[in-house]
Amino acid sequence: MNHQMTFCVDTERSVLIENFEKRGWIHVGPEDGWNFYWTNVNTCRNLFNTETNNYTMTDNQIINHFPNHYELCRKDLLMRNVRRYRREMQKTKSAVAKCISGKFVYLDFIPTTFVLPTDYHLFLEEYSKNPSTWIMKPCGKSQGAGIFLIDKLSQLKKWAKEKKYPKNSAITKNTYIISRYIENPLLICGKKFDLRLYVLVTSFQPLKAYQFKFGFCRFCSVKYKYDSQVSDINCLFAHLTNVSVQKQGNDYNCIHGGKWSTENLKLYLAGIRGEKLVKKLFDDISHIILHSLKAVRNVMSRDKHCFECYGYDIIVDEKLKPWLIEVNSSPSLTCTTVSDRLLKSKLIDSILSVVLPPSGTSV
Ligand SMILES: Nc1ncnc2c1ncn2[C@@H]1O[C@H](COP(=O)(O)OP(=O)(O)OP(=O)(O)O)[C@@H](O)[C@H]1O
């Protein structure tokens, strides 16, 4: 029997609430018998924490996170899971683990990354072989906070000394990752950009994932300079594509928000590189998504009440090779432009059409 759906939200994002209310759902609090909870990751983790909570979900409840989403979404864990997956694929002699001169052909989609301070010596070994530019990112932060670039070891040493870092080698909120910087990104009008794509997962075992048809590019507002080496490594407006960073720059345009739809990108690239290469690029991106999910599938929760919409951040280099930068468990639902609002409303609608049973009124 259908009953009126109830929903609960931790966030006041209007794209969500408008959608739920349009369906006639009733807004309730977290303690009030909800059917559908759009929560933040912390609330979700607390809800599933059997030591502090004895909440048991009933058959007619669903929630928008897997309790251990961090296996995919924390920068250091993603790297570790992908490394382990590659080893497993090698053991089974899978074609996907093909190696040429010690380099993976198909599973080389994350820039080489080390966890600091734990992997400092491994990083030094790699750095001595190939110095180039590296990017430092704190594991526990987002929106570009705490990120900086280095192209000399002395910069890292100076930073560590000033920060009195590391105090010890345990993984804490002070843990950083250091990744090889993609020095040759594909530029459009001289500017760097990344892609934000959305992937819905309703189950990891068996893996059931859906890639949302639409996405967008986020452009830097300052031109990128690269000849034989990256210049202006301190100019974050040329290097970090996060909207939260770009918004603080003088050149940020709040009408288009530095965003372009993936449809526009495809048309533009087809014009300059040809449709065949564009198709290959987007096939390669789907391949990255699939294998990143397979890399965590065995460690993810099997709870049938959970689904998750991931925000994939991809950088394309000038050879049209896509690189996975990060996976977000709570991609922003803030709407900075009109097109943003349309896209995000469509995204929420599509998610609901998959996660709700066909009647759409009860879970
Ligand atoms: N290896 C890399 N090579 C080139 N650019 C990179 C690399 N890693 C990150 N960037 C740039 O830095 C930006 C911030 O990186 P990242 O998304 O990992 O950090 P964040 O602060 O966690 O952001 P978010 O708010 O999306 O979680 C990216 O959007 C990208 O533009």
Topology:
Layout: E1 6-9, H1 14-22, E2 26-27, E3 36-38, H2 41-48, E4 62-63, H3 70-73, H4 75-91, E5 99-100, E6 103-104, E7 113-116, H5 120-129, E8 134-138, E9 148-150, H6 153-162, E10 176-180, E11 187-188, E12 191-204, E13 207-219, H7 236-239, H8 243-246, E14 259-261, H9 262-273, H10 275-296, E15 308-316, E16 322-328, H11 338-355
Parallel strand pairs: 1-2, 1-3, 3-4
Antiparallel strand pairs: 5-6, 7-10, 8-9, 8-10, 11-12, 12-13, 12-15, 13-14, 15-16
Helix pairs in contact: 4-10, 9-10
Keywords: ATP-binding, Cell projection, Cilium, Cytoplasm, Cytoskeleton, Ligase, Microtubule, Nucleotide-binding
GO molecular function, one term: tubulin-glutamic acid ligase activity
Subcellular location: Cytoplasm, Cytoskeleton, Cilium basal body
Verbal overview:
The protein is of the alpha+beta class. Helices cover 33% and strands 22% of the residues. Among the domains are: 58 residues; 173 residues, ATP-grasp fold, B domain (D-amino Acid Aminotransferase, Chain A, domain 1). β11 and β12 form a beta hairpin. The longest helix is centred in the last third of the chain and has 22 residues. The radius of gyration is 21 Å and the shape is globular. The model has no long low-confidence stretch (mean pLDDT 90). The structure holds adenosine-5'-triphosphate.
* Major sheet size, sense and barrel closure: 6 strands, antiparallel
Which spans of ≥5 residues are poorly predicted at pLDDT below 50? none
Q: What's the β-strand tally?
A: 16
- The CATH fourth-level homologous superfamily of the domain at 183-355: ATP-grasp fold, B domain
Overall pLDDT metric: 90
CATH fold name of the domain at 183-355, please? Answer: D-amino Acid Aminotransferase, Chain A, domain 1
